């Protein structure tokens, strides 16, 4: 045993020596590998100048950006997942025919530099960029676009990989179903020539162009689909500013600069690394200590400190979601409109915005984010007014109060980071007008299933935007056709349905805006839900990060980002 | 001894079979449809049905278990629902990550714990004993996430001596061979990266090793105290043997058995993955792998992950049992 403990003591001393060593002593040594000269973080800056290497890519000033986030990507095949952490990365590797403007959902050119819409709204012609190549060297052309769309639409397609468990749910949601379905809007796709492609629709779709700009509908190299088959989710090949390099699950994804990128002078960065750090506080420490350059998912409570901190800048994303308190409008007692209105007046949205988001949220009066097409700012909404609530409650026939069940979500979502606290705030608010709220807790899957069956009275949920179109909010949540799916308030108003249907098929955006505005007035009056807040996610980046613009969809291109010294 | 080893190995079979049944049942008792959870609140009815069909979730449970066992016997741990990758392949790097962290945490725990226990016993009721045992008590009751965050705050943020998270410099990753990064960098003869890997290990090892360290220290102390009172120690002392030799050669060996048990159990626990430590230090180990799978309802990963962890735990217990005989030849089987 003596020998053993001697060994232990040696090991201990070794560890202590290691711990006592500081950075400089180790890193001023000549690098033994071509990649060691890359540390850009503040603490390493002194040693950096000494570690120049002959290799070109290790020269000082190589731009490496480390992006810290809470979770790993599910898949790098964007259309087969709805995971935001996946599209955050694929947005760098792939491009769609159209793109969104930097800070909004306005549609701008992408791989298509121009497009035309026929007067009846049934034919869309896209003119594609010429000379664009995929990362594997093959040409991007109209045939490639067609292959990709057919892959998503047709479960029988040779690249659909249905057997391996691939499904393209987001395609079904956005284009009304799949090949052979009655409501599937894309009738045919015609390749006119290499750089011109035509989509013929069965019926007009008001947000077809927005869909084409979504990162979920980007174009993969058909040659890569052939080569990798179902392993395409780990071997992405697109046309984007960065090429896929490596992926260590739950740890990091490394992307390299695409030297042959078709947009002149881009990207600015040589390498982008997406690093997973699950804990929000630990991620902030990593940013402060220079291990990260940008971090997503800052706690709103930390935002005030970060804002005043030197060397770190605070960023916010525009609102693109909202959380709500829903009423089951077809079940007593909440089938009573006056009661629903009374509750709507009794909930203090400001208190929720302050308690949960530290003010990084705006009280919501419409079930659609404020920056969206057709957002109706003239809707009065329900101000926090207990007297009015009392009056309405009396009119509803519940002057003596009543008891209601409130189902609270078991999971946190960006639109509802702490459901339990929100439920308690609502419980306290409603007790002031004599309503006793019983909080009901369910597991997430049964929660979704039971609210879809209509077993709930009051419940909490929310919605996040993807294509920046009001239809995705209003129709999904409040159209009678979607009862039991997105529509869990079981709200059915013929007039609203009519307006939403018209707006969906119109291609005149002004007309659409007008129709959505009318629908919001009716919805507000009917009060099927208490719209709570639109959250404004906060994130932080080191001050030397330039041109970084967070997009409301949570996926932004890093092509123009650069690091100043 | 050999017969005993073989007998112990044979007992493993029903144990593991029982494990598969238990994990399978527990996993399928979690309420809710995994297809619903995977697709979330925006899913359509149709999409959920399609996914269920694709995942084979609409088969009866017995059939699902049968398929699982048939695959398992061929060494196939299944395919992850989330990543669509083979679990056997996915789980190895995570096991290596956890094993590496466990080894360093246990070195920390054993070196400090055993020695502190010995000195405490040797100098019973001294100020050292008093402080060591108070410290051990604090160590046992320390909330790990708090300790971890304090370490990060002090050593990474304020002093900047050590990295706060991950296994390697994210700007300069190691090309993995064995996925034990310390070993990999030695194999690459890359001592700069070796140094970086070791630096990444310091904070999580201390956080993870603190509780085992405290337990080992207390166990060593009480075990040593008992041995020190025995007759043969008095004899050795009467012989005029030096204190150091007395303690480390004669006393420690006899005091080792209970300590060894604790070390074995703790190693098993740590190898099962320390979710808190792995999460805060973003260490891509097996604990986080299984935890993520639970939130995603990734049934195959939960089943196989728990099975692998259970297997390792059983294996370590076996090793500890065999070590008894080595440390104390009086133990016969």
TrEMBL record, chain A:
<dbReference type="GO" id="GO:0015833">
    <property type="term" value="P:peptide transport"/>
</dbReference>
<dbReference type="Pfam" id="PF00496">
    <property type="entry name" value="SBP_bac_5"/>
</dbReference>
<feature type="domain" description="Solute-binding protein family 5">
    <location>
        <begin position="106"/>
        <end position="483"/>
    </location>
</feature>
<keyword id="KW-0732">Signal</keyword>
<dbReference type="GO" id="GO:0043190">
    <property type="term" value="C:ATP-binding cassette (ABC) transporter complex"/>
</dbReference>
<feature type="signal peptide">
    <location>
        <begin position="1"/>
        <end position="19"/>
    </location>
</feature>
<feature type="region of interest" description="Disordered">
    <location>
        <begin position="24"/>
        <end position="62"/>
    </location>
</feature>
<comment type="similarity">
    <text>Belongs to the bacterial solute-binding protein 5 family.</text>
</comment>
<dbReference type="GO" id="GO:1904680">
    <property type="term" value="F:peptide transmembrane transporter activity"/>
</dbReference>
<dbReference type="InterPro" id="IPR000914">
    <property type="entry name" value="SBP_5_dom"/>
</dbReference>
<protein>
    <submittedName>
        <fullName>Peptide/nickel transport system substrate-binding protein</fullName>
    </submittedName>
</protein>
<keyword id="KW-0813">Transport</keyword>
<dbReference type="GO" id="GO:0042597">
    <property type="term" value="C:periplasmic space"/>
</dbReference>
<dbReference type="InterPro" id="IPR039424">
    <property type="entry name" value="SBP_5"/>
</dbReference>
<dbReference type="InterPro" id="IPR030678">
    <property type="entry name" value="Peptide/Ni-bd"/>
</dbReference>
UniProtKB/TrEMBL annotation, chain B:
<feature type="transmembrane region" description="Helical">
    <location>
        <begin position="101"/>
        <end position="118"/>
    </location>
</feature>
<feature type="transmembrane region" description="Helical">
    <location>
        <begin position="130"/>
        <end position="149"/>
    </location>
</feature>
<dbReference type="Pfam" id="PF19300">
    <property type="entry name" value="BPD_transp_1_N"/>
</dbReference>
<dbReference type="InterPro" id="IPR035906">
    <property type="entry name" value="MetI-like_sf"/>
</dbReference>
<feature type="transmembrane region" description="Helical">
    <location>
        <begin position="9"/>
        <end position="30"/>
    </location>
</feature>
<dbReference type="InterPro" id="IPR000515">
    <property type="entry name" value="MetI-like"/>
</dbReference>
<feature type="domain" description="ABC transmembrane type-1">
    <location>
        <begin position="95"/>
        <end position="324"/>
    </location>
</feature>
<protein>
    <submittedName>
        <fullName>Peptide/nickel transport system permease protein</fullName>
    </submittedName>
</protein>
<keyword id="KW-0472">Membrane</keyword>
<keyword id="KW-0813">Transport</keyword>
<dbReference type="InterPro" id="IPR045621">
    <property type="entry name" value="BPD_transp_1_N"/>
</dbReference>
<comment type="similarity">
    <text>Belongs to the binding-protein-dependent transport system permease family.</text>
</comment>
<feature type="transmembrane region" description="Helical">
    <location>
        <begin position="257"/>
        <end position="281"/>
    </location>
</feature>
<dbReference type="GO" id="GO:0055085">
    <property type="term" value="P:transmembrane transport"/>
</dbReference>
<keyword id="KW-0812">Transmembrane</keyword>
<dbReference type="GO" id="GO:0005886">
    <property type="term" value="C:plasma membrane"/>
</dbReference>
<feature type="transmembrane region" description="Helical">
    <location>
        <begin position="201"/>
        <end position="220"/>
    </location>
</feature>
<feature type="transmembrane region" description="Helical">
    <location>
        <begin position="301"/>
        <end position="327"/>
    </location>
</feature>
<keyword id="KW-1133">Transmembrane helix</keyword>
<keyword id="KW-1003">Cell membrane</keyword>
<dbReference type="Pfam" id="PF00528">
    <property type="entry name" value="BPD_transp_1"/>
</dbReference>
